[in-house]
Amino acid sequence: MSSLRALAGRAVREMLRTPDALLPTVFIPLFFLVVNVGQAARIFPAGATPFLEGQNYAAFQLPAAILLASSFGGAALFLVEDIEGGYFDKLRASPVSRSAIVLGRLLAEGAKSVGIATLIVLVALPFGITVASGVLGFLLLVALAAGWAVVFSGFMQLIALKTRSAAATQSGSLIFFPLLFLTPNFVPRDLLTRPMEVAATFNPVTYIMEGLRSLVLEDFNWTRIGRGFLVVAVFGALMVFLNVRTIRNYD
Amino acid sequence: MALAVEAERLVKRFTGRAGTVDAVRGVDLRVEEGEVFGFLGPNGAGKSTTVRMLTTLMTITSGSARVAGVDVAAEPDAARRAIGVALQEAGLDSRQTGRELLVLQGRLFGLHPAAAADRARELLELVDLVDAADRRIKGYSGGMKRRLDLASALVHQPEVLFLDEPTTGLDPASRLTVWDEVRRINALGTTVFLTTQYLEEADQLCSRLAIIDDGVIVREGTPAELKADLRRRRGLEADPTLDEVFLDATGRIRERVAGQVQEVE
Questions:
Q1: Do B75 and B14 have their domain in common?
Q2: Nearest residue of B to residue A8 by CA position?
Q3: Nearest residue of chain B to residue A6 (CA atoms)
Q4: Is the pLDDT of residue A54 over 80?
Q5: Are B96 and A10 inside 8 Å of each other by CB?
Q6: Predicted TM-score of the model (pTM)
Q7: How far apart are CA A22 and CA A18, in angstroms?
Q8: What is the ipTM for the molecules in this complex?
Q9: Domain membership of residue A57 as a residue range
Q10: Residue B121 shares a structural domain with residue B242
Q11: How far is A99 from chain B (nearest CA, A)?
Q12: Beta-carbon separation of B93 and A14 below 8 A
C-alpha cells in the first residue's frame, strides 16, 4: 500500500506540473456542453419536456460533459513518456508489485476526475442546473465519473503498454467519440431510433451516462445508479487484470 | 569466492513478423563478489539484452541466471532487492526533483518515508547534487542526470550494481566523475557489472571482462591476460591495446579510407 500511495502521489504531482495537459480536460467538455445546449435547448424546452424532470436541457447534457472530461486518459501518455525515457524500466526493476505500478497512475487519474467533475458541476450551478439527488447524489456522481476515468485510463494504458507509442496511444483515445455518440446523448434511450437504441443498449458507456443523468435529474434511481457502478466495477477489474498481465509479460 | 552473477547457456530469442532473431545465444558468465566486471561488445552484439535478462527486465528464452545467489526467473522480486540498475539512457522522471526521485525510489524498495528522505539526503551528498536536489530533473546536465541515476540505483544498498553504458554521451570531465563514483561504490563492497563501448573505460575500471559478439562470448579474462594472449598469438613485441584485443575478438579490422574510419568484417 505504501508503494501504491507513493506512485499515485508521483502521478498526481506529474499532472499538476503539466497544466498544459490539464486545461483542455476542463475546457473542451465545457465547450461541448455550451455548443450542444445551444443547438438543441430550444427543441427541448424546460417546462414542456417530460424527460428533463423540470430542469433545463443543460442539466440533461451535463453528464455527457462530465463523461468526456473523464475520458482523456492523460495518464497513458505520461506512461509512454516513462517508457520512452527509461523510467518505466526503473520502476520495473524495483520489487514493487506490478499491480501497484498499474494502479498508481489509475488512482491519480481517478483523483483528477474527482476534481474536474466537481469543477464542471460548480460551473454549471449558476446556470440553473441542480443535482436533484442532493449532496449524497453529488458524491455518487463524482465517484461514478472517477470510476469511469479509471476504466478508460486503464484501456489507454493498455494501448500504451502494447504499442509503446505516443501516436498510437493518442489515437486510441478517439474510440471514446463513437462510444459517446452511441449513447442516449441527446435524448433518452426510448426516444432513439431502433438501430441506435440497440447500439446504445450494447454500449457500456450508456449505463454510466444513464447513472450520472439519473443523479442529476431524479431522486435516487438505484437501478440506474447500480448499473453504472456495475459497469465500472466489471470493466475496471478487467482493465486492471489486463494491464497487470501485460506488465508481467513486458519485455 | 562466492559468485555475484552466474549465467548458464543464457538464450534470448525474439520472434516477430520478420522472423526469429537469436540476440543472445548461450552465454555463460561468472562474476565474483566485489569485482568490477566489464561486458564489452559492438552495437547489437547482445550486451543490453543480456543485462536486461539478468536484471529481470526481460524474460529468458532458455538457460538460467542467478544474481546474488537468487534465480532471476524464479524469484524476480528477491533478485530486484539485491540489484541496482542504471540503464543506457538515464531512466529518470524529468518532472520530479532529484530529491523526490530518490525518496520515491526508497519507498519502492520498502523504506519508511522518513528513512527514504534520510537515504535520499545521504545519496545526494554522495553524488554531489545537494545544491540541485530540489530542482526539477529536466534542468539537469547530462552528467548530473547520470550521477542521479547512479544514486537512484544505490538507494537500497544493492549487492550487485548493473551499469549499462553509464558514460555514453558524457563529456570527458563528466565521464571521469562517473568513473570515480564507480570506484567508490566498488570500494564499499558492491559488485559492479559494467557494459561499455569505451575500451579505455573498461581498461581503467574493470578487474575482469568478457567480450560478446553476435550473441556469444568470444573472449573472457583480465585486461592483462587478454592483451598477453593476443601478443603471444600475433608475436607482437609489445602488449597490444584493449582496442586491438576487441577488434581481434570481434573479427573486425579498422581501415582508414578517405579520412573515415570504417569497420568491415
A1: yes
A2: B104
A3: B104
A4: yes
A5: yes
A6: 0.86
A7: 7
A8: 0.86
A9: 2-248
A10: no
A11: 13
A12: yes
